[in-house]
Amino acid sequence: MLKKYPILKWSLVGLASLILLLFGFGLWFMSLIPKKDDQYDPTKVKPSELTYLTQDIPANRGRVLAVVTSATTMGTSGKSTGYELTELSRAYYVFQANGFEVDIASPKGGEPKVIIDDEDMGEFDFAFLNDKDAQYKAKNTIPVEQIVPSEYQAVFFVGGKGAMFDFPENMDIQNIVRELYQSDRVVGAVCHGPAALVNVTLDNGQHLLQNKNVSGFTNDEELLLIPDAKDVFPFLLQDELEAQGAHFNEGAMYLEKISHEKNLVTGQNPWSTWKMAETMVQEMGYVPKYRMLTSEENAVEVLIAYETSGSEKAKTLVEQMYGEKKMEVERVLIAKHSIIAAMQGDISRFFGLVGLTSYTKKMAQKG
């Protein structure tokens, strides 16, 4: 058969070669991912083991309210949802480490559904799961109708796709936002959390978001993960924020971006949580306590350098981090962004980020 049809023969050879090439590339790509450290298990970390949470804690400065969604499904789609653990845990500990007591509320109260993405979990997130006090609050949330806004210095709306369904129309949430904002206390929200702001009207009749710089989960971020998002959600968050008069402040996909408009602080996505919470502390009148940046945050800084200044600038930053600064860079996140580029069909950026992942591995081994 192959002698009779030589073209078929060479087509099969070419296909086999391509399969081998892709297989080889796949093995090489996986070699860029750090192997699990058998000597350290972050899932067992306790708050008492993290110096940020145990040393130099200021005297009590008041209370901050964190609000999470009670929704468990995305409307009538049947898709599961809840609040994002990393967006709660990281902000919770920033507030706590800076002297604030944190209460957790939700529209329905009780135990809301939590979304845990194992790939994004760090030691602070696992510490939150091992924190008896934090877990009691997270599993016994206060119904928002019972909240007395005057008791809080700030309110923070945690993201999670469920927020799109039970935050916007909740009158108690609107009252909390209105009272805190108008009394010059701090209102913060991250990722889908800004859905809490879309229907808030101030006493002067003006919409809260009118002419405000605001960040939140972008249309591009939403539609890449959920192509039918326009049918699943009551609205796309970016579209609705803009429709209410906000100036939408958009950063690179899945990278840190916050907007700070006086006592209104908003963040684009989960990777914005640390900076957003610390900016809220600053807006409450305090210098945020020193915190060593996580390896994930370092990777975000590298990726932002890549997006804004190119590959060489990003590589120089990696050299500095592993060299003089003695920092770790979470190269898994860089590798994830190469996959995102492939999903978008941007082959040049895909290979550029794969190369950056490889270079980061080289610097880690050298350091």
Task: Output the keywords.
single chain; 367 residues; alpha/beta; Rossmann fold; 2 domains; seven-stranded mixed β-sheet; two-stranded parallel sheet; 44% helix; 11% strand
Give an overview of the whole structure.
The protein is α/β, with parallel strands linked by helices. Residues 12-18 have low confidence and may be disordered. A 7-stranded mixed sheet has the order 5-3-1-6-7-11-10. The longest helix has 26 residues, at 6-31. The chain is built from 15 helices and 11 strands. α3 packs parallel to α11 (273-283), α12 (295-309) runs antiparallel to α13 and α13 runs parallel beside α15 (347-366). The chain folds into 2 domains: 42-283, Rossmann fold (3-Layer(aba) Sandwich), CATH 3.40.50.880; 293-367, no CATH class. β10 and β11 (264-267) form a beta hairpin. It is 44% helix and 11% strand. The radius of gyration is 23 Å and the shape is globular.
How many β-strands, per DSSP?
A: 11
State the CATH superfamily name of the largest domain. Answer: Class I glutamine amidotransferase (GATase) domain
- Tell me the overall shape: globular
Number of separate structural domains? 2
Largest sheet: 7 strands, mixed
Which stretches of 5+ consecutive residues score pLDDT under 50?
A: 12-18
Strand order of the largest sheet: 5-3-1-6-7-11-10
The helix-and-strand class reads: alpha/beta
Give the helices and strands as they follow along the chain. Answer: HHEEHEEHHEEHHEEHHHEEEHHHHH
Give the strand content.
5-15%
The residue fraction in helices comes out at: 40-55%
Rg from C-alpha positions? 23 Å
Q: What is the CATH topology classification name of the largest domain?
A: Rossmann fold
Mean pLDDT figure: 90
- CATH architecture of the largest domain, by name, is 3-Layer(aba) Sandwich
